[in-house]
């Protein structure tokens, strides 16, 4: 090769190398990395506290992060069972600042028992920011007089670490599959002797701590709102809110509620793994990334279908997300999450194991319902109690949805009708939506669980100027339009802003009242007003077959790809 040609080739090679060098100088010497700390404790000192899921949770999380989401195996640190002492957890949390640099993505995951201190008659958690509660390290039960100082506590142990990482330019995603509380019992019968094991330990505080602890709890229970979310670049996904018990799926339950890999898992972790593995959609608007709102919506919807009895919460809540974290990618990797596709609307599949002929005859005439036999896939099971006096409505998982006197056929029909129409409407909305609406029930930290006398509002943050429609289906199967009730409310809500329905003032907020049970809300944000909107004004206590609702269903199809949608559940609990 002659010298001019060799020189020319050398120059050709030098140009891209120089360009890469300049890019490296402009954006830093190294590309952003992904760092993870995964903690899972199932084997506690006290066998009564043991959980089967956490070790499998950590193993499966590490596998999917490395295999699909761009993590390097050496950058994923795990602490499992006996490794996860308080000192070791705190040491690894502190080490995150050394293991990472500015612009790196840091994921922290906890799986195991959470705890709260309980006072008489109050369903409240340790008064930490946003009910973050405390995580129970493996050596907690070995202490002679264990107390708050032996836990991993949000305010004192986590906030300083995460705040420092944020200040150093890291982007965080924190996931906690553990309980914060669990002292409230649902009137609909969700808490049963054969329920899944919960991930909550009642905290036995020292005698000298008890009075101060109870005083703090009383203040937390009376407070209208939790403390402001302390982070600006940290997305948080938690298994349950105040008053809920996060569930573990042990080996003996796998036959009736299989997990993603047929191994024991936390209920939320199983749902999250399905999203991360691409088994269920996590990219709900098809833009190539998975946001906090999308992963929260995907896990919540899957868990709602299984009726585990607890609902994941996202932080920051929709109402206070001034930084827009809900619409930012939790992991900045493109085209990995499964994209939502249009699915055919399926009827509610009901199996009656031991219902009377009168009940069978009544429910068989409900629209959007199909009776199935034993061995077929099912959504709802009707089962007569051992005493023959009550009918239980069970989810396919075996968890109770409601218990109704067997003689009250009308109530049984209403419950089934509610579920059937809700499934139809949800299917219709998910088939035609262009993405997931950011929506919540304020205060969102309570995860949709409230007691009579409390006041709430619904919060929506549309991504475009949008006409909002909020429907409520109560436990009797009746439908009401909560918004818009009058023509003045037809005005579009502003894009990117949290709008409270009906308002933020105490006199505007909705007063929670009996009866106990669950209502479902379906929230649509239309890019332009749908036809027949005025027909929804003042609609309340309507049957799902009401012509005005039928017209609204038709408008959903005609607005295909021109609205976002999400659903919520409001449960009125015994105090």
Helices and strands, with pairings:
Layout: H1 3-27, E1 34-40, H2 53-68, E2 76-80, H3 86-99, E3 105-111, E4 114-116, E5 134-135, E6 152-153, H4 154-167, E7 171-177, E8 200-202, H5 207-222, E9 234-238, E10 248-249, E11 265-266, H6 267-276, H7 292-306, E12 313-315, E13 348-352, H8 357-364, E14 369-371, E15 380-384, E16 390-395, E17 400-405, H9 409-432, E18 435-436, E19 438-442, E20 449-450, E21 455-461, E22 467-473, E23 479-483, E24 499-501, E25 510-511, E26 517-526, H10 547-558, E27 563-572
Parallel strand pairs: 1-2, 1-3, 3-7, 4-8, 7-9, 13-14, 13-15, 18-27, 20-27
Antiparallel strand pairs: 4-5, 5-6, 9-12, 10-11, 15-16, 16-17, 19-21, 21-24, 21-25, 22-23, 22-26, 26-27
Number of domains: 3
Q: Would you give the CATH topology of the largest domain? A: Rossmann fold
Q: In which order are the strands of the major sheet placed?
A: 2-1-3-7-9-12
Kindly state the mean pLDDT as a whole number? Answer: 82
Based on Cα principal axes, name the global outline. Answer: globular
Rg, Cα atoms, Å: 25 Å
């Amino acid at each position: 090769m002659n010298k001019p040609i060799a020189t020319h080739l050398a120059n050709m090679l030098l140009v891209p190398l120089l360009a890469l060098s300049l890019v490296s100088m402009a954006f830093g010497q190294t590309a952003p990395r992904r760092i993870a700390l995964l903690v899972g404790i199932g084997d506690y000192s006290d066998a009564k506290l043991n959980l089967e899921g956490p070790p499998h949770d950590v193993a499966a999380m590490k596998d999917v992060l490395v295999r699909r989401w761009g993590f390097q195996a050496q950058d994923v640190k795990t602490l499992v069972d006996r490794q996860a002492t308080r000192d070791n957890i705190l040491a690894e949390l502190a080490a995150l600042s050394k293991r990472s640099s500015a612009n790196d993505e840091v994921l922290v995951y906890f799986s195991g028992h959470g705890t709260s201190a309980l006072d008489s008659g109050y369903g409240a958690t340790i008064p930490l920011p946003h009910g973050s509660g405390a995580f129970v390290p493996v050596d907690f039960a070995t202490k002679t007089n264990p107390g708050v100082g032996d836990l991993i506590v949000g305010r004192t142990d986590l906030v300083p670490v995460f705040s420092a990482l944020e200040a150093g330019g890291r982007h965080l995603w924190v996931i906690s599959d553990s309980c914060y509380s669990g002292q409230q019992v649902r009137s609909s019968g969700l808490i049963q002797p054969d329920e899944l094991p919960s991930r909550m330990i009642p905290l036995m505080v020292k005698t000298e701590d008890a009075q101060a602890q109870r005083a703090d709890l009383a203040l937390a229970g009376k407070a209208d709102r939790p403390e402001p979310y302390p982070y600006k670049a940290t997305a948080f996904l938690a298994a349950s809110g105040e008053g809920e018990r996060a569930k573990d799926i042990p080996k003996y339950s796998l036959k009736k509620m299989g997990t993603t890999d047929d191994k024991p898992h936390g209920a939320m972790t199983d749902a999250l793994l399905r999203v991360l593995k691409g088994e269920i959609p996590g990219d709900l608007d098809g833009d190539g990334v998975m946001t906090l709102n999308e992963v929260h919506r995907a896990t919540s919807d899957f868990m709602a279908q299984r009726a585990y009895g607890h609902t994941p919460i996202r932080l920051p809540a929709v109402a206070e997300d001034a930084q827009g974290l809900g619409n930012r990618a939790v992991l900045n990797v493109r085209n990995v999450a499964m994209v939502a596709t249009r699915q055919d609307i399926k009827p509610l599949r009901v199996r009656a194991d031991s219902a009377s002929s009168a009940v069978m005859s009544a429910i068989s005439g409900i629209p959007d319902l199909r009776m199935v036999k034993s061995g077929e896939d099912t959504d709802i099971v009707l089962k007569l109690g051992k005493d023959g006096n009550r009918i239980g409505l069970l989810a396919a998982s075996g968890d109770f949805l409601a218990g109704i006197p067997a003689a009250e056929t009308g109530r049984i029909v209403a419950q089934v009708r509610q579920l059937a129409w809700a499934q139809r409407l949800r299917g219709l909305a998910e088939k035609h939506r262009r993405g997931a609406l950011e929506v919540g029930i304020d205060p969102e930290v309570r995860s949709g669980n409230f007691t009579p006398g409390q006041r709430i509002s619904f919060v929506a943050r549309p991504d475009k100027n949008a006409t909002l429609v909020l429907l409520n289906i109560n436990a009797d199967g009746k439908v009401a339009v909560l918004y818009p009730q009058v023509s003045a409310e037809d005005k579009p809500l502003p894009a990117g802003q949290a709008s409270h329905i009906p308002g933020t003032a105490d006199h505007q907020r909705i007063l929670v009242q009996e009866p106990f049970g669950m209502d479902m809300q379906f929230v649509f944000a239309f890019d332009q007003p749908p036809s027949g909107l005025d027909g929804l004004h003042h609609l309340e206590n309507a049957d799902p077959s009401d012509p005005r609702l039928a017209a609204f269903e038709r408008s959903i199809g005609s607005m295909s790809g021109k609205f976002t949608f999400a659903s919520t559940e409001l449960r009125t609990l015994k105090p």
